[in-house]
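Follow-up to my post from last week.
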Amino acid sequence: MRPLPATRLRHSRLVDRVIAAAITVGGSVVLLAVAFLMIFLVAECMPLFRSAATSPEQTTPSDATVLAALEDEYRTAVVVVGSDGAIRRVTGTSAGAAELLAGVIGPVTTALTSPDGVILALVDSAATLRTFALTTRIRWQGARRINETTIDPRWSTTIPAAARLLAVGGSAVAPAVLLSAADGAVLVSAESEGPTSATIALTLGAPATTGAVSRDASQVWLTGSRELAWFQLDSSVGPLAPAATQPLDGQTTVAAPLLGDTTLLLGDDGGAVTAWQVVTGAVTGSHRLERSAVFPGRGRVRALAPSQRDKTFAVLRDGGGAIFHLTTRRKLATIGELPAGATLIGLSPRRDGGWVVSHDGLVARFALAVAHPEVSASTLFLPVRYEGYSTASLVWQSTGGSASFEPKLSLIPLLVGTIKGAFYALLFSAPLGILAALYVSQFAPPRLRQFAKPTVELMAALPSVVVGFLAALVLAPVLQRHVVAVLGSLVAIPLALVAGAVVLRAMPIRVRRHVDGALEIALVGGLLALATGLVFRFEAAIAQTLFAGDIEHWLLHSAGITYDQRNALVVGFALGFAVIPIIFTLAEDAFANVPPSLVSASLALGASRWQAARTVVLPASSPGLFAAVMTGFGRAVGETMIVLMATGNTPILSFSPFNGMRTMSANIAVELPEAPWGGTLYRVLILTALLLFAMTFVINTLAVLVAERLRQRFGRLAA
Amino acid sequence: MRRLRAFIAEGLTQRWLTLAALLLSLVMIGGLVAVVVEVAAGFFWPHPLVELTLGDGSRLLGEEWDREPDPASPGQQRVRIRTGNRDISGADFRVIRDRDVTARRIPADAWQLERLEYGVFMGFPRQLASATGIVAATSPGFAEVLADAIAQAARLRAERQRLLAGIDHVHAPVARLQARAAAAERRNADASALRAALDAASAAEGTEIAPLLARLDEIRTLEEGVTLLIATADGVSRSVPVAGIVRAIPVNALGGGARVRLYLSRWVEFLTGKPRESNTEGGIAPAIFGTALMVLLMTIAVVPLGVVTAVYLNEYARDGFFTRAVRLALANLAGVPSIVFGAFGLAFFVYSVGGALDRALFSDVLPTPTFGTGGILWAALTLALLTLPVVVVATEEGLQAVPQAVRDGARALGATRWQTLRRVVLPYAMPGILTGTILAIARGAGEVAPLMLTGVVKLAPSLPLDATAPFVHLERKFMHLGFYIYDAGFQSPNVEAAKPMVFATILVLLVLVVALNMTAIVLRNRLRRKLRGSAV
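User reply:
Got it. Predicted complex:
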């Protein structure tokens, strides 16, 4: 034989080495994939917990005494209203030229903007109240965006000299202005330009010092003589008395409604900012003002600026500014480097920055980085008192109808739903799976074993969407109609088996000897059929004696439990269907791993087959059974389609087997496709996925460790 | 007392309880399969059309769907009738109390029309009007004439489909230019060159499709000329265009052979046709195709990686911390809920990778996403991750079955490790690799939750594979059997009407998954026998 040329040998050795390296790299891909999956998910939800930060931007002086200011959506300029009746567009570099407002006869005594920065109201030297609507239009010049803020006059009217401007509200079409009066305040509003304004007198008993108007001009808040009063406006024109009043501790300096007009913020001269909401009183139709939050601080509160995005707001006090969030009751950030004598504060419409203006015209802008102010570890896992709620609660409600809707993202209802579903699934599948495995491994005739094992394995292969569909559309209605019979069978089947065994024992030995193998299977099958058949046959009678005919009615009236058609029982059954094969297979493995010598020894000592199984096989394999149940639990926790279809998907907190629930997995499946990328909901849902991952990771690692220890134990025994 | 203890010690009841547990499990799986087969197999079989006369003199014609106890009057039953005629009555079903029925007959001249729109029509044909004249339903050759007309309509429909596909094909470059021009204008970039190209392309398209459009008009005229006058049980006459009829069946007059042929042809339509009426009728061919293509893509991704991992673990790795970590990672990957893979697929593949691809390669149509939205490629990759452990475990089992002596023999003959692996070990372990592949396919075909996040849709406008370059459109969304079951069964506007279709789809999916698993089990058992044999 001719030897191979040396080059070919070298070549194959090189190939061998390259392939070995490639395979090693390929092998580590799995490890990298799992690590990357985890790290990626963590990175996706980290921004949720990043704390907010402000950073100062340019400070620009303007040559006016500033009374009011506002900023456009793209933060191109802060428009300041000077006491000379002119506006200036202050950018980062220029103080802007004075542009006189139409019709204003300077100097202006007071000027105010509405909380959403859409309406400007001012009182000029002729004691004329003038309103303006502000619009920002975007024009494109090539690729360059140009913002045009135009200020168009709306209605104007002369007012008594003593009247002070308290607040501006309403819409750009129909601005509403709140003015102080001797007895309280008056709300002046008009549909459009013109003198025909409607005024409503609001009686407080004393001149109002501060006030606020809702965006739809249907609510007014007033403070005066240490009292807060809330007015609900209707179509009447007569003097209106407050619908609710509440004494106050401090001297209120500013008032502003938060986005949604459900909560009013009050700042006082002691430095505290308090949040107030209207709740229904004890008497029907009556209302009560309730303090829902306090944000203490030091220094007189000068100005409040609610965000137009969410429940975030900025507070300007003597000696400092800060950003807070109502629902989380958190101080998100402090604003540094304020100009001396700052009197006004504002947040930009996109809540990505803001500005502070001093009386003498210094405009200090700051950037605000706060991606998800409404989420913190405590809002995700602890009860939160949301706007409009009377107590702190655990709620999942991610989307709502209006722009001012506040998402309620508590993970607890979902966690409880997940655990509940898995619990009922295990309640059903663990005994069934373990007992069936015990039979197959210890008692079954070989032919049944050969048939049963692959059949149960096949059960694991059934797509869960099929199981879920059948559970929801076939099983759930049947279970609702026959809930008594199904629950009754749970009692009847063991009774029938006991009765059958007693009868069989009474038989002579030559009869008993034959009852084995196929005959035994037929006998037990017959007993099963007989027991369930009898229970279903006499279902009506059972229901009549125990539950007065109708179990749903009985549950509702004697226990106050409602019955949903798609409930935890159905889910437990369907999920159990998916979990049984897992528990069965792992339990069967655990039983099979018990050395047969142990069983033989036990039988030789005179134990019955059952005694050998119970006293030797079961204890020896108990760690394996634990691992089996754990793995089943992991599967039940993560199963999606079955719970998505067979539960009502209502995220309620209830442990009742007759109610539905929403699990974490189903929640991801339902809401993630609709959640905008990078938004709060998206990140919370990714966090849910991460939680699921972590839960199953712990469960599976535990199961693997237990299985390993088990192997070691029997390794010693076998040796 | 002693007898009781002896009774317990013997453990007959306890043993029976374990047997009962096994029997219950087996009954559950058997019951599930039985329910599916019963409903699905029965749906396509022609059911007799029953005419009921009610107490108030009104009549209705339909199939008896199911019966249940009448909650209003104990001891009595009520029956649900599938009456069809949705365009007249507004509903497909009516529930009739047995006590309201005064007469029941099975009229031999009742027909059922399966239509393209508005579901089935049940009634009594009066006459067929066409260009060649009017044929009364009572005339002897009516059935043949109607069958010919329907066949002709089917031919015209097929021709129109071809014409429309041709028009789409011609229009595709124009549509792409339109999208690019629109995107450019949205970005305020200069679109004048694109506009000029678009105008030229539109003009060229106009001349090219003119003959196609003319032929389409002709077809429309031909179709409009043929109508069937048919009366409902209540005597309301209705003129139904034959072009909209898929099948006309004189159900009650059918013989045995005709019934079997009808049954089979309905199955064929179901398996090869497109869905109609928001997935409540027609066929599931696009879902079958989408499932197959997605699974194929997944297999291409997962099998090489899975085999390499298994080869590494079994042939190359030394026992150590790293190997243990890989095994732990595998065990965990197998236990991670599928929805977590879906979330990862959406966040990573779709948004991160897809978004980056769009910015790099398809920036001319941004902000409309190309790969930055769910698609068949991302779904396949997500499922590949999900099924990786399945392939690895099965392949490892296959590798373990290779006797060490065979490896040693090859090495002793001077083969390198790679040569041994390629020529000896891998061919030997082939059944294991095959088992893993089949199990992965079965898992991928049945998995739904991750797909819901990564690109499955209820109705895809076009298949991910077609005659337009580049022929395979990996960014397209697709239909899937499992998602079809969820969507038609739960999100459909007409769940009751969709139910039989869903059951038939479940049967298809079950047959597929069970057949795949059976094959895998048989393969694996053979492998295990070999393993045992080699150990001796």
